[in-house]
Amino acid sequence: MTDYGHDIRLGIFPTPQADRVREVVDLAVVADTSGIDLVSIQDHPYQPAHADSTTLLTWIAARTSRVEVAHNVANLPLRDPVSLAKWVATLDRLSGGRVHLGLGTGAFWDGIVAAGGPRRSPREAVDALVEAIDIVRQVWRGERAVRSAGEHYAVKGLRAGPVPLGDPQIWIGAYGPRMQRVTGRLADGWLPSMGYLPPDRLPEANARIDEAAEKAGRAPGDVVRLYNVAGLRGSAADQAEQLAGLALEHGMSTFVLATDDADAVRRLGLEVGPALRDLVARERAQRPTALPATPDDGIRLTGELAWDEASRPRTPEPAAPAEYTPEQLAAPRHLVDVHDHLRAELGRVREVVDQVVAGHLDVGQARSVLNTMAMRQNTWTLGAFCQAYCRVVTGHHTLEDRSVFPHLRRAEPGVGPVLDRLEEEHEVIADVLDRLGRALVSLAAEDGYGQKGRAALAELSTSVDLLTDTLLSHLSYEERELGGPLARHGFG
Known about the structure:
Shape: globular
CATH topology of the largest domain: TIM Barrel
Distance between the termini: 34 Å
């Protein structure tokens, strides 16, 4: 039994018939007013009876106000990743953050080739997907240039952007073992169809995705499980019970109904949905409360991490599933709260540095700030604030190393390898903080924007990016692995 605890969401999957395309849009409007969360459109550009999915999704987003939209799924061989990334980001801005990207490797190769696309082997198709995901995320980050020297996509120095307004997710329609492992490693969601992957095959696929996620330093719950469903029968209560079983036993949480019937859409949103959410909520309320942890989004601004995330040890699971009281959960919750403060402060550091790099605060001004203002007077300014932040991080890690970790070693010896790794990562983060400190000193010593000044700015920006990568990765790992031991034994 697997339930990842994701919110229950509902979607529809109408047929994009070109001769009734306005009816499809009208159906999306019904969904928008009936409690449906997602409208998705299949993408077969070689199908003459189908409207263009990208145009249709854009029109739907313009006619609705709350539903999210996505390809289900985009035919990657006929949709280059840069154009897809820019389309998603643009529509996301226009729609108020309501767009996601469903991706598929392609299946009907004769049609793809007939439309001018490549014919790829299964291995080539997955390789191309991996390259495309990297390109899309580089474009969305809007930082530096987009570069990819892959076998299928070569992007050389393209300026990144636009940046989406919201946080578009990438969902993969994965059926084969390798695609499922890629999903666990890279994707935000898994989007199979019941017709191709029936419920009895979900456990092995979920296990494969979970294992790949963990090897990549992610939590299985970082991957949302969506499911295209069809043929729901019986009353609204009957349908809710069927879907609740899929949620509670297999972790599927977003159910996308293939239908062109407006009455079925209304029933799904207004009757099935509330009954389904109630069933799942009641069952979950009887289960142990989940340990708090912040998932790692997997985004890395640099390629300079000094550790292999996939080799991190894991905390052994208790012999029996633990049921934690609210009092026990206070300790891991406190750890997350402290980490959230560090994350928020890191965001403020990045904002100040971005102002310098963007030229809103020049090097001379930064030097003046560093040289003339006391820390208590200028905690919002560049040098002093960064230095204060570095001391806070170092102090937090020292407290853990000298007090909390020895207590947990005594209370639960099996967590020892995790604690060893965390202490090693504390040393790495200390070195990264030292590098940031040196970058600040170098910046303060330079006047204007000469060659040395530009080099100092570049090093400062890189140092902050590296701190972001190492610290966020470390904090998520620590929360995931120490949440259980802290709930069982406290801080000592």
